[in-house]
Structure to design on (119 residues):
């Protein structure tokens, strides 16, 4: 039950990040920074949503990699694989709201999940 809530929060944080960060089309870096400066509260809220979302999804990825290392527990491995498939589906849904934001969210989650592994 906790994992379902965790995945729902990952979706919520990703959705909020996608809605609060505005990326102009066609992309002009100056317009992007002006949008961040003129809307500081949205930028702060989007940064916090990105931070907490990356922490949650990176932790889920880290747990999955730990399960792969300890492959003796087959039933737990299947459960973690199911959670990972649902996480990928969440990222695919987030790509529909904003592919640039979802790509940043996804890449940072994978980087955090792999960097936080213990040897």
């Amino acid at each position: 039950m906790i994992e379902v809530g965790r995945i729902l929060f990952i979706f919520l944080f990703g959705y909020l990040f996608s809605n609060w960060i505005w990326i102009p089309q066609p992309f002009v870096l100056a317009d992007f920074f002006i949008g961040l400066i003129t809307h500081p509260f949205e930028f702060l809220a989007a940064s916090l949503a990105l931070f907490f979302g990356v922490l949650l999804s990176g932790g889920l990825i880290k747990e999955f990699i730990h399960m792969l290392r300890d492959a003796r527990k087959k039933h737990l491995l299947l459960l973690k694989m199911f959670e990972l498939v649902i996480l990928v589906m969440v990222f695919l849904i987030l790509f529909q709201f904003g592919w640039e934001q979802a790509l940043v969210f996804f890449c940072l989650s994978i980087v955090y999940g792999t960097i936080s592994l213990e040897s």
Notes: The radius of gyration is 16 Å.
